[in-house]
From TrEMBL:
Span of domain ABC transporter: 7-244
The entry's keywords: Amino-acid transport, ATP-binding, Nucleotide-binding, Transport
Signal sequence, renumbered to the chain: none
CDD domains per record: ABC_TM1139_LivF_branched
Keyword Nucleotide-binding on entry: yes
Protein name: Branched-chain amino acid transport system ATP-binding protein
SMART domains attached to this UniProt entry: AAA (SM00382)
Similarity section: Belongs to the ABC transporter superfamily.
Amino acid sequence: ETAPPLLSVENIEVVYNDVILVLRGLSLTVPKGAIVALLGANGAGKSTTLKAISGLLRTEDGAVTRGGITYDGQPIHHLDPGAIVRRGIFQVMEGRRIVADMTCLENLRLGAHTRRDREIGDDIDRVYGYFPRLRERTGLAGYLSGGEQQMLAIGRALMARPKLILMDEPSMGLSPLLVKEVFGIIRQLNAELGLTILLVEQNARMALSCASYGYIMENGKVVLDGTAEALAANEDVKEFYLGGA
Ligand code: ATP
């Protein structure tokens, strides 16, 4: 909690197509080196929040119409997605969005395209270190299993040497075993590389087990936030997000 915030979203309002108000005064903070979970039901505005941070909102005719987003002490909400990636923020999209008709290796190289240095061999080895299975897959990425595609999507993000990764539903479509594996790797990336992670998840239990802090969104704003332990112990959270357990 004492670390300075790497990312700070302050009271933002987001509108699609000039009319539909989707975020209504959303604020959150991600300290340097932390894993922070952003939870909430379908349609609460979680993906929209990530797109507002990564600048991808404008590709869908969305806009931040109020408030601001600060990263590493600088406002970023006016920057285009490429400039935001160059600052060190990388989004792993929901549905993975790997390039199906390229190989794993080509997808990984693509992840490094914004870097100035062309010395990416060590980075590719590092990604294969985290995801050994990807090294063995020499065919087109479109033929990978769902779990392998998720790993490739994360690996591709790592190639950009990000400081902050925005992850949209890494557990989506994965078997319980693979969910465990992917979350284990997320924890490892945080611990070993000091990577800061903002994690959007439907799987609240899994997200709170690896995050230190969490925010719960409803209807475009935060309705509850606290340490992961406090949220996991909260009766309302248990009832609505942890399946009554
Ligand atoms: P999910 O888990 O289903 O992705 P979410 O919490 O991520 O939900 P968002 O995808 O951010 O929610 O969507 C929030 C609201 O914004 C929804 O009501 C959705 O219909 C609307 N919305 C999302 N994208 C657009 C868009 N491109 N144009 C108009 N409305 C949109």
